[in-house]
Write the structure tokens for this entry.
Amino acid sequence: MNNKESQKVLDRRDFFKKTAALSVTAIAGTSLVSSNARADDPAIMNNVPWGQKWGDPVTANRYGVPSKYEHNVLRRNTKLLASGNFRASIAVAPIQESMGIITPNGLFFSRSHGGVAHVDPHEYRLMIHGLVEKPIVLTLEQLKRYPSVTRTHFIECPANGGQEWRGPQFNSIQFAKGFMSCAEWTGVYLKTILADLGLKPEAQWMLAEGSDNSEMGRTIPIDKVLDDAMIVWGQNGEALRPEQGYPVRILLPGWEGNLCVKWLKRLEFSTEPWYCKEETSKYTDLKPTGKAIQHFYANEVNSTVTSPSPEIDWTHLKDGDIVEIEGLAWSGMGTIKGVDLSFDGGKNYVEAKLKGLVLPKSWTRWSYIHTYKKGDVLQLTSRAMDDAGYIQPTIDQEVSVMGVEAVYHRNAVETWEVNAKGEVNHVQIRS
């Protein structure tokens, strides 16, 4: 190495020493992150391996795939929520890894009652009949001739959190609250099709039926059909995935995911509900009186803390570190208006900040900037409210009405305890 080359190396090292010193000063004053910078850090002093060889050609993956380093970000299953063969089962979304309010199609939670059907779009047919003036059978191409709209909405299984009625069952945010996801949907409003076909005035109910081997059927009141019900074929800019009902499914914004029938084959209109299996023996809530609630559809106002969580804890934080607490809020009744956060399990609350887009019947992201004190025990509880005037109840309030035998529509506040080590555990606080 000659003198000029040696001087260049020294100048570069001197630059990084000065930069590291300045960074430490800045971080100590205002930054959210702690500094572990070293002037001789190999990651900045040396040429990185991936910068010294050819990258993949643009033809390597005709359909893009995630980085190999994101191998842990995936849907998960449990035998506790399966029929034994995982066909009548659910795959839960990793909401702790979610960014923004859109769930990627490959991570969107999936629920089926007879396995995922694989429908040939060329053989696909949708029959619309009953109390309509012009009964019709549509091909996929004919269906897509109707003017389309694109809307962002969440879909939530009404059993999301249902295993928590008696107490926490899963020490995992993914399994406790991952029965939901949010996406941008493209399709046609049902009211647009019915304006073309003519809906008879005596029609009060619609049956939506799927073409999978469970022939999932659900009854939907006509008010919802003529409000914002959609027939969708697009999700996040591409065709529906098979596990989301390809090529066509119903979307009922804010209402039970089970009502959003997948692999849709038939819509029938009538004066009376059908009382299908999934709205009689299933998807009803048993009250302490022994009577069950039926035909309650909208998912109530809800929220959860997603970070920290058992999957993303605070064991790495140091005393005095500034950290962002994040979470999600949603309501099938309307638009989220605010979220409060408690550090003591709901005794006292502070106002959190809503982040990004705030849309009706959609996920809303919220956060709160917190200074971490090592050794403190925190009980993080979030409480959301919507523009319909609903506020999340406490567990005691909810149980006083519903008891503990119900499975669906649990929207009471929940608590994540951060212990003295920074570990996170799911707890339940009752008076």
About this structure: The first strand starts at residue 89 and ends at 91.
